[in-house]
Design brief:
Blueprint: H1 12-73, H2 76-93, H3 100-120, E1 123-126, E2 139-145, E3 154-159, E4 161-164, E5 167-170, E6 172-177
Parallel strand pairs: 2-6
Antiparallel strand pairs: 1-4, 3-6, 4-5
Helix pairs in contact: 2-3
Length: 180
Amino acid sequence: MTTDHQQPDPTLDELTQQAAAAAAASVPETLEARLADTERRLAEMSDAYLRAKAEVENTRRRGEEDTTKARKFAVEGFAEAMLPVMDSLSAAIALPDATVEQVLQGVHATLRQLQSALERNKVVEINPASGTKFDPHQHQAISVVPAEQDPNTVVTVLQKGFLIADRVLRPALVTVTAPK
C-alpha cells in the first residue's frame, strides 16, 4: 500500500499572506537602509559645509590681516628712500662754517637725492611746458592772461604738480591763455 503524504497545495489566500509578510519584512529593511544612507549623506554634507564655512572665515581673517599690515607698512619703502635726504640735511646743519658755495652744492645734491627717492616711489613731476594744452585733470588754472599762444594753453607754471602712480597728488598751478 502506498500512502501519499503530500502536503496540500497552498491556497490563494495563504500565498497572498506569505507574499505580504515577505514584502512587509523587506520594506522596513529598505526604509531603514535608505534612512541610514540619507543620514550618512546628511552628515557628510554638514561636515563639508562646516569645513567650507571655516575656510571662508579663515580667508576673510587672513585678508583683513594682510590689509592691516599693508596699511601699517605702506610707507616703509618711501621712508627708507627718504633717510639719505635726512642724513644730507643733518650733515649740512652740522657744518656751521660752510661757505655759500658749499651749502649750495649740498642743497643741489640733496635735491637730487629727493628727486631720486620720489621717482623710485613713482612720484613724478607735473611741469607742463609753455604752450601745452591746459588739462584740468593735471593742472589748476590760477589766472587767465592774454597771450600770443593758442587759447587755453599753459603760459607759466607757478608751482609744479605731482603724480603718484598716474594719480594726481597735487595739480600744477598754472596761468593759461585767455580765449580770443
